[in-house]
Write a structure and sequence with these properties.
Strands 1-2-3-4-5-7-6 form a seven-stranded mixed beta sheet, sandwiched between helices. It has helices at about 10-25, 35-40, 90-105, 120-130; strands at about 1-5, 50-55, 60-65, 75-85, 110-120, 135-145, 150-160. Helix content is about 30%, strand content about 35%. The chain has a single domain, classed as 3-Layer(aba) Sandwich (Aminopeptidase), CATH 3.40.630.30. By secondary structure, it is an alpha+beta fold.
Length: about 160
Amino acid sequence: MIHTATDADWPRIWPFLQETVLAGETYAYPLDLTADSGRDLWMRQPPGRTVVLVEDGEVLGSGTMGPNRPGRGSHVGTASFLVAPAARGRGVGRALGEHVVQWHRDQGFHAIQFNAVVETNTVAVRLWQALGFGIIGTVPQAFDSAAHGLVGLHVMHLPLD
């Protein structure tokens, strides 16, 4: 079940957010991220939203969504996703992705833009392409991957009109 994340969910999100950031393969977040600074980055306030996917009382993943830019850019949404390591390969990312696309449609957004999908994160790239996103550009050597060194960041786009 996917529902809006609450303060009570944060202690269950933080461990896999921290693990994901420290792995150095998907998010350009500060390596000295703390639980407090992580909460400030992840737990979106309106008009944005943060959700969790919970199964048998366990948080398996989380997603954020909302406007990509303020003001005249607010008609295009964006999102970020985390899947707990133990839940990878179980469809959690797809369920969160489908939820986020539908939420943006329901809220009247015209498109969704992912600003920074690491090109070596092939599982995510394939998933977003399967959900209809296209790669509209790649910023070369924009991410310092722990495993691959300097790699590109894809900008991905899904029209909703």
